[in-house]
């Protein structure tokens, strides 16, 4: 079964305030970005079977706005995505039910680009782009030919970077 992994950096957030980094809400621009991205992702990848979402406010708000524009069967807020690196998120992906065809991760930089780089099986233009990091509201779409449990370094193919069009 062909699998698709979408690694999404949260949309544009407000600067850090008195409540701390984890409680930063989306900025107006970020709300527009996330709302526009949902239908774009739906057209590209279809329904999402599992969404793993960072517990940071800007990530959960991004997820809710993206999910409003596409079908998501199950979602889980995973606190460890907030501070975890690429290998931490990879561990959660390796535990995803093998029946899931499409998985969405909503997280942060540099973890999103780091994980996309780790998983990508080629040294091409997309690899160079993600090696520099990805802007807010950018989705890295990877094709996963094996199982979720087998997902590891160079076992997926980064096929596209998606930015919201609005």
Automatic annotation (TrEMBL):
InterPro entries: His_Pase_superF_clade-1, His_PPase_superfam, Mito_Ser/Thr_phosphatase. SUPFAM superfamilies: Phosphoglycerate mutase-like. GO terms for molecular function: hydrolase activity. Keywords: Hydrolase. The keyword Isomerase does not apply. This is Phosphohistidine phosphatase.
């Amino acid at each position: 079964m062909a699998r698709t992994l979408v690694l999404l950096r949260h949309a544009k957030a407000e600067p850090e305030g008195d409540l701390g980094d984890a409680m930063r809400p989306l900025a107006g621009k970020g709300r527009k970005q996330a709302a526009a991205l949902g239908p774009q992702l739906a057209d590209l990848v279809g329904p999402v079977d599992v969404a793993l979402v960072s517990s940071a406010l800007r990530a959960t708000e991004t997820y809710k706005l993206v999910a409003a524009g596409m079908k998501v069967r199950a979602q889980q807020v995973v606190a460890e995505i907030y501070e975890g690196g690429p290998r931490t998120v990879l561990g959660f992906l390796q535990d995803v039910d093998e029946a899931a065809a499409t998985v969405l991760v909503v997280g942060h930089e540099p973890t999103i680009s780091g994980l996309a780089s780790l998983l990508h099986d080629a040294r091409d233009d997309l690899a160079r782009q993600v090696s520099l990091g990805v802007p807010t509201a950018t989705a890295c779409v990877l094709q996963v030919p094996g199982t979720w449990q087998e997902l590891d370094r160079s076992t997926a193919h980064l096929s596209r970077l998606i930015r919201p069009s609005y």
